[in-house]
Amino acid sequence: MNKALISLVLPLIALLAACNMGPGGNASSGEGSVQGDLHGASIGAPFTLTDQDGKKVRWEDFKGKYRLVYFGYTYCPDVCPVDLQRIAQGFAKFEKDKPALAAKVQPIFISVDPERDTPAVLKTYVAAFHPRLIGLTGTPDEIAKVAKDFVVLYNKEKAEGASGYLVSHSRTPYLFDADGAPVALVPVDDPGTPDADEGDPAKVTAFLEKWVK
């Protein structure tokens, strides 16, 4: 394992609490944001998943496009929708300011909850954030392989007596280049620093202006 990947994996272990619920029913991420240059890291691999329209989609289908990839799930009570909303706001400003560059970027949401996140569920969900956001799901085995290849940790958790379940997962919004190689982690807010706003949409816009060429 190369040094770049090791430096990424170690903090991700601490991020597994994302989208979990803390005591008293309050959402508690319990993790900090991890941002940084990912050039040279071994992240990503070819896959075939199913989009929100029920069509098969391959990683190779996005060749020639930068890929802004967020792993999460539609039933996430707090972290995923907030992250996606702020990333979408930053991306929308980027579209307005740099339309030609924004056209080179494909935003993608990959579910870590394939049992509930059917194409129909994803279709409604992704439409709420941005018209160009693609939602991808698959079989549990397909999602497990993609998560492993993209260095994403997730775990289904069911509280005693609860009718449903939550999915703890690492919070890793990635930007990949036009060849599918990792570039950097997209800014998201760190709940451990209430006086700072690392996930401000303006910072997402600045991030895209820095990396998308």
Please outline the helices and strands.
Elements: H1 3-14, E1 48-51, E2 56-58, E3 66-72, H2 79-97, H3 99-102, E4 105-111, H4 119-127, E5 134-137, H5 140-149, E6 154-157, E7 166-169, E8 174-176, E9 182-185, H6 201-211
Parallel strand pairs: 3-4, 4-5
Antiparallel strand pairs: 1-2, 1-5, 3-8, 6-7, 8-9
Question: What's a concise summary of this model?
Answer:
The protein is 31% helix and 19% strand. It is an alpha+beta fold and 213 residues long.
Write up this protein.
- There is one protein chain.
- The protein is an alpha+beta fold and 213 residues long.
- It has a single domain (49-188, 196-209), classed as 3-Layer(aba) Sandwich (Glutaredoxin).
- Helices cover 31% and strands 19% of the residues.
- The chain contains six helices and nine strands; from the N terminus they run H-E-E-E-H-H-E-H-E-H-E-E-E-E-H.
- The protein has helices at 3-14, 79-97, 99-102, 119-127, 140-149, 201-211, and strands spanning 48-51, 56-58, 66-72, 105-111, 134-137, 154-157, 166-169, 174-176, 182-185.
- Strands 2-1-5-4-3-8-9 form a seven-stranded mixed beta sheet, sandwiched between helices. Strands 6-7 form a two-stranded antiparallel sheet.
